[in-house]
Amino acid sequence: MNNNKHRALLLAVLLAMGAYAAPVLAQQPPPPPSSTSAPATRVPWSSLSADQQKLLARFGSQWNDLPPERQQALSRGSQRWLGMSPQQRGLAQQRFQKWHSLPPDQREALRQRWEKFQSLPPNEQAAVRQNFHRFQQLPPQQRSELRERWHNASPAQRQQMLQQSRERRMQRMPMRPMPRPPMRAPPPRGH
Asked: How far apart are CA 186 and CA 141, in angstroms?
């Protein structure tokens, strides 16, 4: 199984576990337009920096024909790209090439998982990211065994694994003592 498939599987497992995973910025699709938010505003070509215009030159002649959401995504993406080191750019290009080599159904499944992740409350997203980082720190053999175990499990077994994981997480949480009611002085004795 190649590295991208491992990451996709890991993301699915961690999201299902309420754990943590953070898709890399270069792979993040733009957020879907919300029916409750204001319509996206156009990004004038002239508002882009010279470096952004150079980077996005192939869109220059058709920039005004692009939907506002696409203009905003390209503007944000070009800003991120220009802020990356050469090493980060190389890694982003590799991820982009791997993404495009995936079959359309796998890309769609990843998009749906990403949207599911984005819909989680911030504390749950943080938990997913934390679990992802913990998983990445495991020895390769242990990661492989966990992936295989999850892949071979039935839906009922997966639910059981998730429940056990939640219980272990709860056991690791520090217990706070219950506050004691204030002590009352004994009633005075009659003389």
From this structure: 64
